[in-house]
Amino acid sequence: MRVSSLPVFPSKEIIVCLFALLWGQSVAAEDSNETNAAPFLVVLGISQDGGTPQAGTTEHPGWEDDQFKRRVVSLALIDPGSEERWLFEATPDFREQLHHLDQLAPATDKPGIAGIFLTHAHIGHYTGLMFLGHESMGAKDVPVFAMPRMQEFLSTNGPWSQLVKHDNIVLREMEDRKAVRLNSRLRVTPFLVPHRQEFSEVVSFRIDGPNRSVIFIPDIDSWEEWDEAGTRIEDMIASVDVAYLDGSFFANGEIPGRDMSGFPHPFITHSMQRFSKLPAKEKSKIRFIHLNHTNPAIWPGSDERAQVLANGYGIADEGEIVEL
Question: Model pTM?
Fold first, then answer.
């Protein structure tokens, strides 16, 4: 595996300045807590559920050098006007991600989370809820938005049921394609996607702000299965400004000794081939996310990443901001 020796995260100073600019634009309107500063998303993690480096890997530069680490996939949604913050996914890296968010967009109270939206019950997407319990933060009444099966799973299986019992979290049930209104400027719409459903449904999200929209699809079996269900990913891309799409694996063969043809994720090479006829403007909306630790496109300087960029697509980076 080739990795770059160049820094892979924007410097902390640059990110803090960007957040300060967006956060500091806010000037309280008379008799109102609302401001004109636009809400925005920030990427808190881009890695597949196991993180990078993954458990069990022994020779990886990330064990010694933080610039080669990647946190598990997560987004944060911030509204400077209302000073509210929401998380998409509660990952095993919850502690670091919340601390990162606290540094960049400080909350007026703790934990300062207006809600957490969960896609499904695979380890990288919900297990961070454990930090809200009495063994750690002892949070109170944090809204957790989940689909019906996901809600039942959390309610009836320990240790998650303890979070419900002790009111660390309050479950809010979502419905397929029914928007959740967060405030006067923001709404989130879940939509079902085909992916392994051992314990829960799997959803992705459309996030709408006052000026721009984003889709977040970290896990899906294939675009073709979605076609059969009557939804074309190209139509969804056309309807938004930014599309964070499942880029778990670059191509078959990146895991030595394994035939990956049956893996339940679209390879980036396949996605690029499928989207090859899209106009350049549509391609530029796409940012691959949820990258496995074996995926060479995760590393700046790799030939595979250069190939993605040369074809007009993007790779999500931790710390990047999308204004809504």
Answer: 0.87
